[in-house]
Structure formats: C-alpha cells, structure tokens
Amino acid sequence: MNTITLVIHGGAGTIVKEDMTPELEAAYQAGLKDALSAGFAVLEEGGSAVNAIKAAIVVMEDNVLFNAGRGSVFTKKGLQEMDAAIMDGSTLEAGAVTGVRNVRNPIELAMEVMRNSNHVFLSGKGASDFAIKQGIKLEPDEYFFSQFRYDQWKAIRDSDNYSLDHTHQRMEELMRDKKFGTVGATACDAQGNIAAATSTGGMTNKKYGRIGDSPIIGCGTYANNATCAISCTGHGEMFIRSVAAYDVSCLMEYKGFTLQQAMDKVVNEKLIKLQGEGGMIGVDAKGNAAMVFNSAGMYRAAKNNKDLFEVALYR
C-alpha cells in the first residue's frame, strides 16, 4: 500500500514558548491532534486525500483558537470575511471562495465550488448565494464572535493599522507580535493521490475587501500528483507576489528538486528576499511530508502509516 500521509498547520509567526500559558499550549496541541485524527481516519478507511483534508480543516474551522471559520478575525467594519480553497492533485480541479460571511465551514463551500459550480473562484454575495443553493450550513454573526479577537480588533480599529495576528496575550504589544492564523492541510491517500486546502479569516482590521494568498490557487494553495500538494500561511501579499505554492511545484517539475529542497528554497530564500514571513506544509505522491517556516514558530502536525507522528508549535 502507498504511504498515507496527512500534514496540517494552524498558522505561523511569532509563536514562542514564553508567550504561551501551559493551558493555551495544551489547547493548541489538542486542537491540532483533533484535526489530525479526523483527517487521518478518512485516509485509514481508504478515503480520498481531498476528503481527508476537508475533514481536518472543518475541525480547525470549528475551533475558536484558529483564525478560520468560528473565531475568525474582525475586519475594519467589525465583521468576519472568510476565504478558503481546495485543490485535487489527481485532476487539477480546484474550488475557492473569498469574502464569504456566515458560512460555518468555508472549506465545505470551496469543495462545492470545485465539484458543482463549473467555476474555480467565487466571491462575496455570489459565493453566499451559491452556498444557500448548495445547502451549506450558515450561522449567525454571534457564532463567529470570540472575545480575544474582538479585543485584538478594538485595540487598532480606530487606526489605519492592520494586523496579521494570532495574538492572545500582551495586547499592548499587538502591532509588534505577528501571528498568521490561517489553517491548512495536505494529504496523500492510499491511491497515491494528493490534495491541498487552506482556510482563513484574513487580517484583523483589513479593509477594501483585501484578499490574501490562501484562496488563490498557486499562491497559498496548490496540488498536482506529478509534484506536490502545498498549503501556505504567512504574510499573504508576499506569497502572492512569489506565487509561492506553485513555485515549489515548478522547482520539483523543472529542476528535479525533492519536496523538502523545493520548500526550503521558496521559504528560506525566495520569500526572505521579499521580507515574506511565514511557512508552508506539503506532501508528494510518495507520501513524503515537509513542514518549513522562516518565522519563530508554526502550529503544525503530521502523521503517516509508518513512523511519522509530530505535533509542534515552536521552532
């Protein structure tokens, strides 16, 4: 049987042990383990990589600790606007949504776009209308509220500042701490098919309908059986400018790099030249896994059916 592998992330950035209470650290580890278990169970039962990553991301979207789904950050207008994307490496089919509101699990809507819309990328009201047509579960604004995200927004809402934060403590240092709270997953199933998905609430206090890299195919999310499946987290503008996820695939396809070599090149050389902070996770069709970041930490976890099991927060 092919090596089955699942890799997930819950964001990268200024994640250091001294900022973390034991309770919060345990909560993040538990959240990652729950998502990893949900996705890996799908793979163990012979399910597809696409269904496995969706299952893992739904768990993180439902967890208020992560900036995706419930617990998404507040925009300039005090609302939640969420983005998500998913891509099937076996077919190169993809689905993405941006600026959606009240959708409980944006990753499920992205999956519906991929499978049932004849399109790749839907935005705003159109995406919401499609969600209703497809019977995607909606929730009231109150469902998405979290006190620490509200406090985070309140600290900067009267300024023109925005924050890429996943901050919990030391609110007075809000603009110094940088934590990118996107969630993502990549998987290789028993058939050797791979897939990638990413979901996010974006930036605190974002305005003008800002869109980051997460829902953009090739930038924050990409999958191709011939090379790799990648999900990114970090300063989205830099990941867009460097077409980060697809660049990993190109290095593998055209230069013969391994997954690890290609991700190292993009994250630790190309992104750093652009002052792009963050990281990415990936798998290839042989079930190899990699987790690379140039920030202080990245919430991450990985498991396969051999000897890989890792749950980590810090460098």
- What separation lies between the terminal Cα atoms? 33 Å
Give the name of the CATH architecture. Answer: 4-Layer Sandwich
How many individual helices? 9
State the domain count.
Answer: 1
Q: What portion of the residues fall into strands of 2 or more residues? A: 15-25%
- Overall mean confidence score, pLDDT: 92
CATH superfamily: (Glycosyl)asparaginase
Helix and strand element order: EHHEEHEHHHEEEEEHHHEEEE
Query: In angstroms, what is the radius of gyration?
Result: 18 Å
Helix content, binned percent: 25-40%
Number of strands: 13
CATH class: Alpha Beta
Class per helix and strand makeup = alpha+beta
Query: What coarse outline follows from CA principal-axis ratios?
Result: globular
Look up the CATH topology: Glutamine Phosphoribosylpyrophosphate, subunit 1, domain 1
Give a quick account of the main beta sheet: strands, pairing sense, barrel closure.
Answer: 9 strands, mixed
Uncertain parts = 165-177
What does this structure look like?
33% of the residues lie in helices and 24% in strands. It has helices spanning 22-44, 49-61, 106-116, 124-134, 141-144, 147-154, 236-241, 244-255, 259-273; strands at 5-13, 82-88, 93-100, 121-123, 179-180, 183-188, 194-200, 221-223, 229-234, 278-283, 289-293, 297-304, 309-314. Strands 1, 2, 3, 4, 5, 6, 7, 12 and 13 form a nine-stranded mixed β-sheet that branches. Helix 2 (49-61) packs antiparallel against helix 3 and helix 8 (244-255) packs across helix 9. Residues 165-177 have low confidence and may be disordered.
